[in-house]
Every structure is written in C-alpha cells, then in structure tokens.
Specification:
It is built from six helices and two strands; from the N terminus they run ααααββαα. The protein has about 140 residues and is mainly α.
Length: about 140
Amino acid sequence: MADDFTQCMVSNSRMAARAITRRYDSYLRPHGLTATQFSLLGALKLAGAPTVSELAEARGFERTTLTRNMGRLERMGLIASRDAEKGNGRICALTARGDELIAQLLPLWRKAQAEMKQTLTEEGFDASLKVLKRLAKV
C-alpha cells in the first residue's frame, strides 16, 4: 500500500493557513497591514505590554518573524518598544495610533471572520477553532 501524501497534515495545514491568510490580507493590505501584523496589534491590545519573547510564545510566532513584523509596526508608529528592566528583553505596547488603527480596521476583520463562518458554517467554524487550538499545543 502506498502512502497517500494528499492526507499529509503538514501540507494541508500549510495550504489552509495560506488560504485563510490571503482572505484576511485582502481586507487589510489596502490599509498598509498584513493579517499577521493586525493579529499582533490585537495580541498587544489584549496582553498590554509583554516582552517580545512572551508574545512570541503566546502567539506561536518564531522570534525572527515576530521581530521583523514588530520592527515594521514600530516604524509605522503603531507600537513602541523599550528595554526590559531586567535582562536583555524588549517590551512592546500599542501606541494611541495603533489603538486607533485597530478600531478603524476591526469592521474589516469582522467581515473576514463572517466570511469564514459562512464558508465553514457556524458549527464548522467553532469546531475548526477548537481543533486548531488543540493542534497548537501538540
């Protein structure tokens, strides 16, 4: 019996992630942000002022990817960072401009969310999120 690589979890999860990201990006890119960057702004809004390492761990980002995106957000004036009081970490927080941009773009994010719920059905959307959260802990 041959292995069926069309059933590969890695390939299918990557294809799904790219498709979902493209959907959200289509709404956010005209405003100068990617879905990843908007997600980071949202994470900072929820977390307050975490270190880069804490944020990477909590959101499942590779540190280099996170650092690159955080640098761009800082150059845009959407976040501010400072040295941590102890160690060599960086602490990041939303600026007022970042908070305002979240408020401005939230209706677009909600529209993308609604499209995904329509595509998957409400039950399918909720079930998918549960599976994704469980897989993130593997």
